Amino acid sequence: MLQVNDVSKVYKVGTFGGTQLRAVNGVTFGVGAGEIVSLIGESGSGKSTIGRMILGLSRTTAGTITFEGRDVSTLRRSDLRAYYADVQGVFQDPFSSYNPIFKADRVLTLVKGFFPGIARGEWDAKVEEALQAVRLEPGAVLGKYPHQLSGGQLQRLLVARALLLDIKLLVADEIISMLDASTRIDVLNLLGDLKHRGLGVLFITHDLSLGNYISDRIVILRRGEIVELGATEKVFGDPQHAYTKMLISSVPQLHTKWGPPEATNGDR
Predict the structure, then answer these.
(1) What pLDDT was estimated at residue 255?
(2) Containing domain of residue 75, as a range?
């Protein structure tokens, strides 16, 4: 469905743009229908840049991004509307996606333009179906201002907005990093439910444990390059790259308690 092929992104920085910063370098991977692929990397690894290029928010410097066989990496603004009917993104801070002076359900109303001439009753039914899909009660969220809703409710409302369009691919960029632990598992399970409905998900995160929980395949990114890619069980069960091994060894374990490092022979 989605194929990222040898994609690179170079920014011109410094005085008069005389220096080049290569944020992404020759990245290749795909996301299929009904599949969750986690793009994992540290801050500055280029993972969010890749997400922005897929969403048409940033141009590629080289390479191609195709969706259902069509090159979308060079889409003109006039062509993006049709693309966004199939592909949507949800980002890290749900509060930044809402205008505090408008009620939260305005984010749903904004996509109504994709359905010209739709009757009021039909639209209300679509909204209710989308909210139920993300386990939100219409009466609990519609008509409320953003500050009256939790971060988890706001994030799920954004997913509902994407579902209103009957999208095929969701780019989820650190969507649970600002949520508490109990809400995180709700959102992760929601993504799992959407996967079983045939939705493809690119799950961008820095948290390996989250990627392990939800993903079919894992892409490990370092300094803009892929260092490991494969089925989740393979990457976590038998990592091949030293960087992947280091990341996995750094994940805190629930069954062990932190303690001071053991002294070495050179310590006194």
Answers:
(1) 63
(2) 1-86+169-175+203-248
Q: How far apart are CA 161 and CA 21, in angstroms?
A: 35
Q: How confident is the model at residue 66 (pLDDT cuts 50, 70, 90)?
A: very high
CB 199 within 8 A of CB 170: yes
Mapped onto helix, strand or coil, the DSSP state of residue 231 is strand
Per-residue CA distances from 104 to 170, 199, 259, 266 (Å): 21, 24, 45, 59
Domain annotation covers residue 18:
yes
pTM of the entire predicted model: 0.82
Decide if pLDDT at 7 tops 70: yes
Q: 119-131, pLDDT tens digit by residue?
A: 888 988 888 888 8
Beta strand pairing call for 87-90 and 169-173? parallel
Question: Tell me, what's the pLDDT at 112?
Answer: 83
Confidence of residue 135 (pLDDT cuts 50, 70, 90): confident
Residue type for position 68? E
Is residue 153 one of the residues assigned to a domain?
no
Burial of 185 per CB tally in 10 Å (0-12, 13-18, 19+): middle
Residue 19 inside a domain? The answer is: yes
pLDDT of residue 29: 96
The side-by-side arrangement of strands in the sheet containing 200-205 is 87-90, 169-173, 200-205, 36-40, 217-222, 225-231
Kindly state whether residue 112 falls inside one of the protein's structural domains.
no
Task: Please report, for the domain that includes residue 22, its CATH number.
Answer: 3.40.50.300
- Give the residue, 163 or 1, on which the prediction is more confident: 1
Which uninterrupted H or E stretch holds 233? helix 232-237
Spell out where the chain has E strands: 2-13, 19-31, 36-40, 62-67, 70-71, 87-90, 169-173, 200-205, 217-222, 225-231
